[in-house]
């Protein structure tokens, strides 16, 4: 009888220690929950004024529904969360609320770099000119194929990527998706890709290669 009690006791102790070891390992390997969110569009059309004026969230009197969280309001919230940098790589950018968000970040001193497609930067309604006139650094892809990415990285920490162009049609009419994540294994390759494209499409580099050509011809 005593022997059985001892075996059961030792077994329970071993089980308890194993469980504690597992919890310790889990906490050590995963110090905090990594933020992930998936958003689908089209988004319901609601007022998003409170995101731009958080100090007076109930001041808007427009006719749209207020106080409703949507995919678009979540997207705006994530973009506005940037405190140091925003690297944006987007094919088409004509959405005025998204433009307003980028301008607001620029006004707060957030470093912004925008990389876009040269053909779509010139279409009617594109907000790229507005960003440039505000003093935001914009580079257009110089390649012969479309620069078709749609991703943004905030503070080198938070990635937004998916099918969504930054247009009104994409937000309000199309079936689209975005993934918002802090997962380093996903964020880091996008930072690397942005850097690669940013350097590749540096206008100085482009002009330089043109300057060099005649010299090569002479030689
Ligand atoms: Zn409103």
UniProtKB/TrEMBL annotation:
Record-level GO cellular component terms: mitochondrion
Look up keyword Transcription and say if it applies. Answer: no
Entry's SUPFAM superfamilies?
A: Phospholipase D/nuclease (SSF56024)
Please give the Gene3D superfamilies that the UniProt record associates with this protein.
Endonuclease Chain A (3.30.870.10)
Q: Name one Pfam family in it.
A: PLDc_2
Q: Family per UniProt?
A: Belongs to the phospholipase D family. MitoPLD/Zucchini subfamily.
For this entry, the protein name equals Mitochondrial cardiolipin hydrolase
